[in-house]
Amino acid sequence: MILCQDVAKLRELVANFKKENKSIGLVPTMGALHEGHASLINASAKENDITIVSVFVNPTQFGPNEDYEAYPRTLENDCIVAQNAGADVVFAPKNKDLYPNEDMTWVEVTGDITKVLCGRTRPIHFRGVTTVVSKLFNLSRADRAYFGLKDAQQTEVLRRMVDDLFFNVELRIMPIVREADGLAKSSRNTYLSPEERKSALILSKSLKLAKEAFTNGQRDVEAILNLVKDTIQSEKTSQIDYVEMYKLPGLKPVGNKIEGRVLLALAVKFGTTRLIDNVILEDK
Ligand SMILES: Nc1ncnc2c1ncn2[C@@H]1O[C@H](COP(=O)(O)OP(=O)(O)OP(=O)(O)O)[C@@H](O)[C@H]1O
Ligand SMILES: CC(C)(CO)[C@@H](O)C(=O)[O-]
Ligand code: BAL
User: Fold this and answer.
1) Which residues are annotated as a binding site?
2) Type and span of the H or E element at 268
3) 236 alpha carbon to ligand 2 midpoint, in Å?
4) pTM above 0.90?
5) Ligand 1 centre from 151 Cα, in Å?
6) What's the rounded Cα separation, in Å, for the pair 59 and 163?
7) Alpha-helix runs per DSSP H in 73-183
8) Nearest protein CA to atom 9 of ligand 2, as residue
9) What are 69-88's pLDDT values in tens digits?
10) From the annotation, which residues make up the binding site for beta-alanine?
11) Could you say which of 87, 134, 223, 279 would form a disulfide bridge with 207 (CB–CB 3.0 to 4.6 Å)?
12) Rg of the chain over CA atoms, in angstroms?
């Protein structure tokens, strides 16, 4: 596996892959790789000749009071995880490589899709994500790009960007990988104290209860939202950022009754750590 920390070198590698008619899968990450990331890399390695994993803690998607500085940076171990999962290249650029100029070009999806859910407390977040992912798409010339459903809003925003800008890349969205006890795997889980780690289980538990209620015929939006909120609040240390539902695709308003495909998503803080999780409610 090749570790590439240079834009010019990546372009050269990619040009050679293309000359050899090799299909390219891209797995964009911020590093601190875990089994969730490994599942995306595995999927890409199965479906493409070449898999490029990017490891880049993207400064433009963090707000001024967020955890950009504290975000875990573990490149050596990331290379081992990526290689074991089937990656051919780890691309780990520096800030100045992806943002060479002070004046810069933004790629921004406007409208409610970037303003609801995480967009409410992270108003500049998705503009940073779409900008950096555009750069990564162009540099990698990927045929397919792999994202996790844990960041469900991100996948909806990226789908809109790809459609609107005619990016020649197929988005592949992969299911949420969880710990044995149900907690969604996340690089930010490492911030949790043992007590907070226990409390955080309430997230997957509350979503499971919601799914059960839905399976048993509950279609009332308020009833399901209240069930989830009450369950989370039974953990005294939890601070709810949001528990909301939107219609898929496109995160449209859901109305009073659940119909079609609906995303039930939440963000909750334990201490200073903010975690997200979600489930899709849909009649089979
Ligand atoms: N548990 C998971 N299951 C499936 N995909 C995941 C999981 N966690 C992260 N991903 C996906 O991996 C990609 C990179 O995410 P990122 O590097 O931000 O990791 P993360 O664990 O989500 O970190 P964070 O703590 O920032 O939420 C994204 O597409 C994300 O959806
Ligand atoms: C897609 C991404 C790698 C862009 O920085 C990031 O938002 C993430 O890790 O989900
Ligand atoms: N996976 C989401 C990246 C972020 O929280 O910035």
Assistant:
1) 30-37, 61, 148-151, 154, 177, 185-188
2) strand 261-270
3) 31
4) yes
5) 7
6) 25
7) 75-85, 95-98, 118-121, 125-140, 152-164
8) 29
9) 999 999 999 999 999 999 99
10) 61
11) 279
12) 19
Ligand 2 atom showing the smallest separation from residue 151 Cα: 10
Q: Can you read off the two tokens belonging to residue 112?
A: 């409610």
Assigned CATH topology for domain 2-174: Rossmann fold (3.40.50)
* Longest alpha-carbon distance in the chain: 58
Each residue's pLDDT tens digit, 156-193: 999 999 999 999 999 999 999 999 999 999 999 999 99
Task: Write down the catalytic residue from 37, 127, 144, 160.
Answer: 37
Can you list the positions of beta strands (E) in 140-237?
144-148, 170-174
Quote ipTM for the complex.
Answer: 0.98
Give the type of residue at 156. E
Measured CA distances, 30 to 77, 147, 211 (Å): 13, 12, 30
Distance CA 64, CA 68 (A): 8
Amino acid residing at 78: D
Q: Which residues pair with 272 in a beta bridge?
A: none
Measured CA to CA, the distance from residue 53 to residue 1 in angstroms comes to 11
| Angle between the N-to-C axes of helices 7-19 and 125-140, in degrees from 0 to 180, rounded to the nearest 10 | 50
Specify the domain boundaries for CATH 3.30.1300.10 within the chain.
187-278
Structurally, at CATH architecture level, domain 187-278 sits in: 2-Layer Sandwich (3.30)
User: Which amino acid, residue 119?
Assistant: G
Give the span between the Cα atoms of 50 and 26, in whole angstroms: 9
- DSSP assignment of 219-258 equals -BHHHHHHHHHHHHHTSTTEEEEEEEEEEETTTB---SB-
Q: Which residue do the tokens 């070009």 mark?
A: 105
Give the residue range(s) of CATH 3.40.50.620 domains in the chain: 2-174
Tokens of 133: 């992912």
